[in-house]
Amino acid sequence: MPWNSMPDCVEAQASAVSVYGFEVQDLPSDDAKLKLLRVTARQGAFMHVYFDEKSEADARRYAGCLGTPLNLLATELLDERNGAQWASVVFTADLKYIPPRGEMIKTRWVIFTDPNALEGQRPRPMVIETLPHEQVHDFQSRNGAITPLWFSEGHATWAGLRITGMLDPEAARLDREERLSELRAAEGPVNLGGWGQRRVKREAILRQVSPEDRARMESDPQFVPKGGSYTFTMDDFESDESMAGVRYAAALLMFEGLEKRHGAEQVRRWVLDVTSATGDVTEDQLATSVKMHFGEDLSGLLED
Asked: What pTM did the predictor assign?
């Protein structure tokens, strides 16, 4: 259903009950500083929507927009889980807000409602472009699978764009074209297989954690807060990430190529098989899986 035909995504509403296969409920919040909505989709799948006082209108307006993608994601990812919890979001006007993190805290993606926020961090682009991609990552990690970066980002970009395209076809087209234009302008080999050999600078983590976690990080060099969402720039990595945008596009084309040769359904079943694993999925294991599902050897493409 096109985005513009979903009134709950266009107009602020006080409530939205069982619209398009989901419902939105007010719940007591587990965060003293934020209120809470629960968006529940089919098969009991749900996500939490937190918001501060200044952001209530936006949170209620876009809560419905978050329910429809949950159902689309379940179909796209062949997700048969019952009662699955997806990543949460926080609508806030506080540009300095830092989400809590921890092993028992579901990842919270921040959506800034302050008009001074960067365009990509505001409600509409976050809801229709960023969150489908990030929720795919949430699904990939449901059992703890850790896959090579070309696989995880290629799949999230491919599947995320498919969801975005159902919500706003033009936004998906522009996003894809922007990625591919960067790839066309690239010089030298992309080397998808070598993607992921990078480390985030410690100071990039320090600036995005609570004072308590910062103090513990400074006293314990081995400690890094688990869970939560972080935002990084190219300057935040200790390895050369100047090719990151190009690699996203190349990984997308890898998945689109598999779809063209074998069909989207076969690609979905392959991904479901790979991400059902627990722990590290090595390049050798992935190559074996590709051979089993598609009868192909992708090593040449990964080295180009």
From this structure: 0.82
Q: Does residue 270 sit within a domain?
A: no
CA 196 to each of CA 13, 154, 250: distance values in angstroms, whole numbers, following the listed order: 43, 12, 14
SS3 89: strand
Instruction: Report the C-alpha gap between 3 and 5 in whole angstroms.
Output: 5
Token pair of 272 as six digits: 């479901």
Adjacent-strand bridge partners of 88: 108
Position 7 in a domain: yes
- The conformation of residue 130, written as its DSSP 8-state character, comes to I
Backbone angles phi, psi at 267, to 5 degrees: -65, -45
pLDDT at 304 over 80: no
- Which pairs from 46-49 meet CB under 8 Å and 24+ separation? 46/70, 46/83, 46/84, 46/85, 46/86, 47/85, 47/86, 47/87, 47/88, 47/89, 48/85, 48/88, 48/89, 48/106, 48/108, 49/24, 49/88, 49/89, 49/91
pLDDT at 16 over 50: no
Q: Render pLDDT for 79-119 as a digit per residue (tens, 0 to 9).
A: 999 999 999 999 999 999 999 988 888 999 999 999 999 99
Evaluated on CA atoms 112, 117, 121, 125, the torsion sign reads positive
Number of domains in the chain: 1
The neighbour count for residue 15, using CB atoms within 10 Å, is: 14
Structural domain harbouring 91: 3-124
Q: Tell me if 22 is assigned to some domain.
A: yes
Say if 74 falls within a structural domain: yes
Which residues make Cβ contacts (< 8 Å) with residue 60, sequence separation at least 6? 12, 13, 14, 15, 24, 37
